[in-house]
Design goal:
The structure is a homodimer. Chain A is α/β, with parallel strands linked by helices and about 475 residues long. Chain A is built from 15 helices and 19 strands. Chain A has three domains: about 5-135, NAD(P)-binding Rossmann-like Domain (Rossmann fold); about 140-300, Dihydrodipicolinate Reductase, domain 2, CATH 3.30.360; about 345-465, Alpha-Beta Plaits (2-Layer Sandwich), CATH 3.30.70.260.
Chain lengths: ~475, ~475
């Protein structure tokens, strides 16, 4: 069989980079048999020579100077696995200008310098592949770019951060506190020593920017995406969500709209039978709704040395097999993402209330004044805090701005105290998965209220009056 | 922007073919902007000229003679959407020999003539793309071929037939009989007028052959795959499965083994929290376990005019953008699939029993004699058949041959009558999702038995003795 040699220049021997070295060592024959490509690790650069020895990179192909790799005329594909804005960004542009195909897992550079990178790659006739920058081994970038090339994406819901998904799963399934769940994630290698970027949703926002730019051809500044982390999620919110039939995920949301896509990152309740709910622990998953194909979902490992390295090598083979674009096909169309205040959302709200009659009535009255209908109310007493309880509500869909105004007002009501939560609900568009009864102000509706015995299986039905 | 014209020759204007015509009409601009490819529907052939008029194909590019398309020197890509062995198979080979890239959704030809097709395509330097032949719009073929090019697949579990998945979902969620569920599927366009190939698992077996040949590089004769359909599934099996924490799917199973892969198609219980369980109604889904990436899953529409046409157009763009292979990379390695008798499986068994003491003991004794341990037993009386009840068991993992021998023996026991069911359990490898207590012969164990009141929420615990 005739084969074609592909010389790889690798920048960075961290978690993913060392995974690439290991995989290439054991899988080069397999890749040759499958594709006819003989992938060669020709040059490797890292600041730290000891890493090269640890991973077993031969001394003659190692350097501490990335430019030696970038300027080596023998190199066909530069694989950038350094991460961070700089110097990684400059290295990527240098590689492209030197006529090399580029494969990267760098979500910072790809999300922020999208147009510039694509323009440069097209004008130099090289491939720019970045599958591992969003979703890791989940083939979401190639699904959007290649498999849906004839389709229009209408909605993306993504669980794109393994750390937060692991933490929320532990809190929900094991009853762990957030601190304990984070510590467990660190123990198992699913969270960094400083997990703050992950917990605050910053990592998810960058990946969302990449997916949104791939799918919608808009220009997105990741730092401008509305982003809420999981820091304020309490265990009681997770159990209340479960009682209402939902699970909580840190969600990347992108919805197509004529004016420009709606983009946001925040914790969200999704129906328990939604396909995304099956993404547990460190898993990532992306749910897509597109015009012709309808609903689809991809689930898998979003991080980790070998899973991400597998995505990188698939990108290398793709770069070697695909004809590079002759012109930039990723130019944005000038639209801007929508302001979140214009979004329509429904939400789960939790308020801490004094154990006196009328709290539910006062809260629901405030919601009614903003025109927000309610589909479900649940109230129970705190076990460990006598005289206080909590009220949880599921609203109907309403403008985000009104929802937030009502939430802020209700928090200041007499008999209502901190803490309070607002968690949006997603994953119900497309199919109605949740049948509710709405309650207009002035009407009476039934709420399910836990019995004082604390036996969750025995519920009392209570009538709640909502003033008009 | 510079563009490249790709002339498409389309064979067949059925459901998928007319979807391709419609999509091309509305999406050609989008594809051009995204890829630089100007896809042109240059020639269309179908036996029936009235179809061309219905879909709005221009008269001057239509013909009833497929060879006019196959021999047209202007055509770059032939899209074969006729289906069936012949004449479609001959048309595919003719297209390849005429130097045209080939895109097909033909599961019969691709599954049965795998090696021959790949060899011809490689020797003529053309691409052979068949994404739509297995999984429809679910990008499973490209995931295995491209995204896992550096990985080794260890296990494939697929829900690959929309008709049977719809029927099982309706039976399980709506309590429909199979006849009623099939009629509903036909009403909604999810089942053909004659759904027997689908219900018998034949369609699934062909798709499994395609996935297995893609992933394992073995030669597979689809008709030789052990195939059981859903014909004997009863509603009571679905509710028993649910009570044990499972859902029932018609599953395509492929597991790597040194000697050759284990391949089979049969109804299977999978844990309710398994990602595949979220494939409901007509959806398809494929769960993969691979060495480096670990677990992943793809879910979406496995059929339908526009979803499948989207997969076909993605294959057309891929054929135009990818360098064709220089030699056949899909040669099989001479291994043969394993005989199912050598498989290790665990199963759900249901027996109809007379309402007399000792039935559970006699059945479990027979199982014990074959060395089969039991992890769960459940017994209840038939509501509509006085004096008879059913016993359901979940076994531990055992050789398929022993399981079947024990099942056949137990059916002939005194007080045990027809009907009886054996449904294998899958989806528990990788992670232990089901914690059981085993029961060796001669020991005593507890079984959960429904109370005669019929209130499923109130269970009585019964001790069952298993003779050694």
């Amino acid at each position: 069989m005739s084969s074609r040699t592909v010389n790889i220049g690798l920048l960075g021997l961290g978690t993913i980079g060392s995974g690439v070295v290991r995989l290439l060592r054991t899988r080069a024959d397999l890749i040759l048999r499958r594709t006819g490509l003989a992938l060669q690790l020709a040059r490797v650069a890292d600041r730290d020579p000891s890493r090269a020895r640890e991973v077993g990179v031969e001394a003659q192909c190692f350097t501490t100077d990335c430019f030696e790799v970038l300027r080596d005329p023998e190199i066909h594909v530069v694989v950038e696995l350094i991460g961070g804005q700089e110097p990684a960004g400059s290295f990527l542009f240098e590689a492209i200008r030197n006529g090399k195909h580029v494969v990267t897992a760098n979500k910072e550079v790809v999300s922020k310098r999208w147009e510039e990178l694509h323009r440069e790659a097209a004008s130099h006739g090289v491939c720019l592949n970045f599958s591992a920058s969003a979703g890791g081994a989940v083939p979401i970038v190639s699904a959007v770019r290649d498999r849906l090339v004839a389709d229009r994406v209408e909605e993306i819901l993504g669980v794109l951060n393994g750390t937060t998904n692991f933490v929320l799963t532990r809190m929900s399934e094991h009853g762990d506190s957030m601190a304990k769940a984070v510590a467990t994630a660190q123990d198992r290698g699913y969270a960094e020593a400083d997990p703050s970027q992950d917990l605050a949703g910053k990592d998810t926002a960058r990946k969302l920017a990449i997916l949104a730019q791939s799918a919608f051809h808009v220009s997105v500044e990741p730092d401008a995406i509305f982003t809420e982390g999981i820091g304020s999620i309490q265990r009681c919110d997770l159990s209340a969500a479960e009682a209402f039939g939902y699970v909580v995920k840190l969600l990347a949301v992108a919805k197509a709209a004529a004016e420009g896509p709606e983009l946001r990152v925040h914790p969200a309740l999704i129906p328990r039978d939604h396909p995304l709910a099956s993404a547990r622990n460190e898993e990532n998953a992306v749910y897509l709704r597109s015009e012709a194909v309808g609903e689809s979902m991809l689930l898998g490992k979003g991080a980790g040395s070998l899973p991400t390295a597998t995505a990188v090598l698939a990108d290398v083979a793709d770069a070697a097999l695909r004809r590079p674009p002759r012109a930039s096909q990723s130019e944005t169309d000038g639209r801007e993402p929508l302001d979140i205040g214009k979004a329509m959302t429904r939400a789960y709200l939790r308020f801490t209330v004094a154990d006196r009659a009328g709290a539910i009535g006062r809260i629901t009255t405030v919601l009614g004044e903003q025109g927000i209908n309610i589909s479900s109310v649940h109230a129970s007493l705190y076990e460990d805090c006598a005289g206080w309880g909590h009220v949880e509500l599921i609203t109907q869909t309403a403008p985000e701005s009104k929802l937030r105004a009502a939430f802020e007002t209700a928090k200041t009501l007499d008999g209502v105290g901190a803490p309070a939560s607002l968690i949006r609900i997603e994953g119900e568009s497309g199919k109605p998965r949740w049948v509710t009864e709405s309650c207009a102000p002035g009407k009476r509706f039934e709420a399910v209220v836990d019995s004082p015995s604390g036996n969750a299986a025995v519920k009392n039905r209570a009538e709640v009056s909502v003033a008009g």
